[in-house]
Structures are given as C-alpha cells and as structure tokens.
Amino acid sequence: xxxxxxxxxxxxxxxxxxxxxxxxxxxxxxxxxxxxxxxxxxxxxxxxxxxxxxxxxxxxxxxxxxxxxxxxxxxxxxxxxxxxxxxxxxxxxxxxxxxxxxxxxxxxxxxxxxxxxxxxxxxxxxxxxxxxxxxxxxxxxxxxxxxxxxxxxxxxxxxxxxxxxxxxxxxxxxxxxxxxxxxxxxxxxxxxxxxxxxxxxxxxxxxxxxxxxxxxxxxxxxxxxxxxxxxxxxxxxxxxxxxxxxxxxxxxxxxxxxxxxxxxxxxxxxxxxxxxxxxxxxxxxxxxxxxxxxxxxxxxxxxxxxxxxxxxxxxxxxxxxxxxxxxxxxxxxxxxxxxxxxxxxxxxxxxxxxxxxxxxxxxxxxxxxxxxxxxxxxxxxxxxxxxxxxxxxxxxxxxxxxxxxxxxxxxxxxxxxxxxxxxxxxxxxxxxxxxxxxxxxxxxxxxxxxxxxxxxxxxxxxxxxxxxxxxxxxxxxxxxxxxxxxxxxxxxxxxxxxxxxxxxxxxxxxxxxxxxxxxxxxxxxxxxxxxxxxxxxxxxxxxxxxxxxxxxxxxxxxxxxxxxxxxxxxxxxxxxxxxxx
Length: 581
Fold this sequence. Notes:
This protein is 40% helix and 16% strand. It is an alpha/beta fold and 581 residues long.
C-alpha cells in the first residue's frame, strides 16, 4: 500500500564542512570561459535529434555569438555525430579561434573511435568521463573505488597515447569529468582527478580541464559552491587546472549553482542556450551571460539580437521557448499591470530628460528604468510590445502607448480620464486592446479633425489651461513671446488662458506641436473640465484647434464618452473663420 505521505523516502544531502568559506563575499567581475554543449548534451536530449543541416545552423549561430569552445558531438554514439565532426574538419568550417570538443566514455574502444574522428583537426579537446558516485559504483557498475579510479586513469593514458600518435599534429587537450560529481565523496573525487593529472602531467603550456557536473541537481546552490571551493583549495597543480562546472537544472537552480560556483573558484561553465538538455535541462548560457551583462560585466558573447538566437534555437531543437523565459521570452519586456506601466513610463521620461540636459544619446546613459533589468533595445528588442493594455492596465500604460505610437505626451489628468475610457473598452471585450485601437479611440474622442478651419470665436466665456508638448517650446529663447502671442490670439476669440505649461518630454510626432486644452466652456464653470487636443506645426493654431475640440465636446453626456461630431455639428458650436492651417 502506498504511503499517504511519501516524503519520508527522501533525505537531504549532507552539507560540506568548510570552515572560513570565502565564496559568499566574492563578486563576479569578469566572464568565465564558456563551453556550449548544445550540439552534444542538448542534442542527445531531443526526441528528434538535429539533422546535419540543423547542426550546421546551430554551430554557425554559436560561432557568430562568440563561443570559443564548442562540444560538437559524441562520435562513438552515432554515425550522425561522427559524420558531423568529420564535416567540420574536412570542410574547414572551424574558425582558427574556436576549439572543438568531442565526448567519450572512459572505454578503450569508444576512445579510439572518438580520437579517429579528430584526425586532421588543428586544435581539439577529448572529453572523457566515468561515473564516480557511490550509487553508480554499487548499483550500475558493481565496482569498488580502486576499479573506478583505474578506469579513469586507463582512459587518460589512452588519450595521451593518441596525442603522441595519430593526433600528433593536433593541439590536443584533455578534459576529464567525474560524472555524478555532486553525489561523490569529495575526497574520492579529488583522488580520481589527481590520478588523471598524474597521467597527463599538466604544466606550463599544458592545461588540463577538470569538469565537475551536477549530473542530477540534488542540493541547494550553496552546497555546490562549497564543493567547488573545497576543490579550489585542495587540487594540486592548481595554476595549470581549468576548473570547470556543468550544472543541470533539476531543482530549478542551475543558474544560481553556476554563479555561486564562479564565486567559489570555477573558471569555466558548460551549458546550452536557453537551457536545453536532459530532464529539466542544462544550465542556460544565455541567462548566465545576460545576468553578467545586466551587472555591467562583459560576457564576451554577442546578445544583441536575442530574437534571432531564440528563433534559431527553436528551429534547431524543435522546442518552443516559454514566453516568460528570462531575457529571451516574448513577454519578458512587456507590462500589463497599471502600476508597472506607470513606473516604466516615468523611467523612460526621466531618461529622455537626462539626455536632453546632457546633450547625450539616451543609449549612452546609465540604465535606470523600473521593472526592466536591461534596455530591450540592447538585445535587439523593440519598444513596440513593451507596454500592452488590458483591463489591468492604468494611465501610465495608456500614456506610454500614445507616446510611443503617436509622440503624444498627455497631461496627468487627461491620462486618468482617457485610461478610464480605454479600460471600459477592454472590460467590454474581455481582451487586450491593441495600440492601434488605443490611438483611434484617443483621436476619435479628443483630437480636432485634420483640415478643419480654426474657430474665429467661441460661444460664451471659455477658461482654458493649455499644456504644450514641443521640444522647441521649452528651449526657445523667445518662449515668453510665444506664450503671450498664444494668449492674445485666444483672448481675441473669447478664451481666457489661465496657464500655459509644458508637458511630456519632447515631441516625437514628426515636428508637430501638440496642445492639450483643459477647458471650462460657456456655463460650465464647475466640475470636471472638458479636454480637447490640437495638432499643428504652429503653437497658436494647435491651441485654437485644441480649444475648438473641447468646445465640440461640451454638450456630451460625459467627457469620456463624447461621440465624434460631424463638421455640420461643429458649426453649431462655433463660428468658423478662415482656413488658416
């Protein structure tokens, strides 16, 4: 009978006794060496392994991104892997600054087949491994520690023999991995690695890569960091050892394990783009690299076009990338929440103001926009989908969309009023409302129709507060004269302009001036004002149109629900003069 609560079947791994651990105080200040295993570990995890064409596409992507160490296959595992390695070598497809790696279990026949696949290569690594954990020694191989160690030693000797034989013309390196390292006794892992080094004899100009995988992630990242720091302290010939890690993501903490391992002394990380790999995947090289990038540390990898990276990986693996995947997902730079949208908009506004003050391109300024750890433009993403509107959105999001799509920077009170209108439309449909529809609603509700003549006079007294959005309006030395000219023009038509303020952070609407008129018209002297918007090349004309648009809406039941009126209806509300435009 199954237990009602099976949790008692599991136990936590023992912690690592490490007095005076140093890694918690360390900071990552430079990028590690990266090895992509997309073509090996990533490929072997696919239900439908990559075709030769898809392998070539993935290899080309990795090279273009800047990866200098690429594990290209398991030549003894399949003819496809063997043939792909041969193709890379025979067709001279490997750049001079890229070192390929091939993998083999620590078995003589497999190593011989693997080495033969490298004939003609100018530089390469042979990566050998055998499982060392008590579980594997007892259950899988039924061998003791001595036999396990001797298996690794014999494999290293065979690689060394080939390095002096059929691969004598190749700059051949050795990588050894104690598979299941994170479940292996630390002293025994050290013993096996030291025995392999005794064979290879690392020294000046003769590196060895010792790679330590969390083959199945079982511990919290801090325990893995303790294991790596213990090795960093105890490995002999340390200056000639590249200490590498190969984290998996079974507990969902592969990225954290890799970062803490770097803090603990690791120099190299193996993984796959976007976290492909067996079970829950290998550690995600893209997330790791972008984490460094977001802290101002150059990862040495080109992430300037994440859309292409994502599409290529999806094509090669046949696996979709989650829309919430860090940095690369479709929705990771998108805000639906009103409070998030408002903060993002204010961050962008301040960035643009800072650029104006300093005369600097915004792309050169420190990045400080809430909710966005990096500038989407730096990774090839546009701002088009940065803010998307649904019933959860607020004034900041709606205002951002109008600013991005139409170059309009609404005064705060108009933002609030229009956001309510947009929210009602979204609630009525139960769905997202597009940026195009938002712009249509705004123009239908507030903006004076293009081509209409400006009003000559208005019926009754009009009290107006004008908000002007134009870069030149704020910097022109004749600003006072412009304000007075606007006042005089409107006063002649019966409009009392109480204030003229600048709003927004500068026009992005093709040189147009936008004027937002906050008006009390005729007998409407209390309660909510009526808004109108005018667009023109001239501040005075834009102001006249804005007040005219407000007058056109004064008899509406609600300012937010004012229907668009025909030009015949407009003439009933205003006596129209010339066609100045």
